[in-house]
Automatic annotation (TrEMBL):
It comes from the Bacteria. The keyword Ribonucleoprotein does not apply. It comes from Labrys wisconsinensis. Keywords: Cell membrane, Membrane, Sugar transport, Transmembrane, Transmembrane helix, Transport. It is a multi-pass membrane protein. Residues 89-301 form the ABC transmembrane type-1 domain. This is Multiple sugar transport system permease protein. Pfam families: BPD_transp_1. It is found in: Cell membrane. The chain crosses the membrane at residues 29-50, 93-115, 122-145, 186-204, 224-248, 282-305. Belongs to the binding-protein-dependent transport system permease family.
Amino acid sequence: MAALDFAASDGAAAVARPAAGRQARLRRAAALFLAPAAALMLVLVAFPLADVLWQSLHYANLVDPATSGFAGADNYRTVLEDEDFLPALWNTLTWTGLSVAGEYALGLAAALALAQPIRARAVFRGIVVVPWVIPIAIAGLNWMWLLNPDYGVLNAWLVDLGLIDHPRDWLGQVDTALLTVTLVNIWRSFPFYTISLLAALQAVPRELHEAAAIDGAGTLRRFLVITLPHLKAVSLTLVFMHIVWTAINFDFIWVMTQGGPLNASQTLPVMIYRYAMQDFDVGAACALASMSMGFMAAMFFVYFYGVRRRGGR
């Protein structure tokens, strides 16, 4: 009996050895295929990030090579003591919060509309993508012309409709510049939400809506109880991605206002650009970039571990 047990265990070990060897070969092959991508990420992402962190701890000036040496926390202190830092931080939070909220609301509304069985639905689904595919620089310049107080079409329409008494310089006034750029950013970015949410809507089982309707649930009730829960995963991903993308967005604000007037629309990315390219203070620019990067990394880990905890449940 013992001999039979020994033979059986020896046979099982003999079968397991080729399987283990095969798994090892597969892992080596996978590592070999991933190596070029890993090297590319190392060169294009990891090294620049490490260099930014390194530069943030040193004095560096683009026009004065003599400015060098270890700075410690001086660059961070320079940023925090800058009188423009807190207004720029508030502008960044405002710009990001309003943009993401507006994009999601408009994108969800458009997705719900395009999910209905209407005529020429395919045409409308193609048209809604147009703002997203227009390059930011071109879109920004076009909106500058549309909003121009002298010959802008939008000002003329608003005056004709009686909504305003006279043309306004929407991008040139302190109280409207940031809000105007935010609205333009919502216009450009909401199609991405529309496409993603529309795809998620197609996956909602029709039988659930039919059963809820038979039970007497109205349209709003079915939307809140059935549709929204099915959109939760896609919505969280979209919102998180766009919080990061919008917070680090430089192009739209720089093209349309360059952070003006009087820094009324200056955000942290614009401030980083001014530190580096106008004040030539690379150390302070890298310090502010490192602070922004740290905040984004913290958001990522909160989101990632939140998703893992929900998945565990």
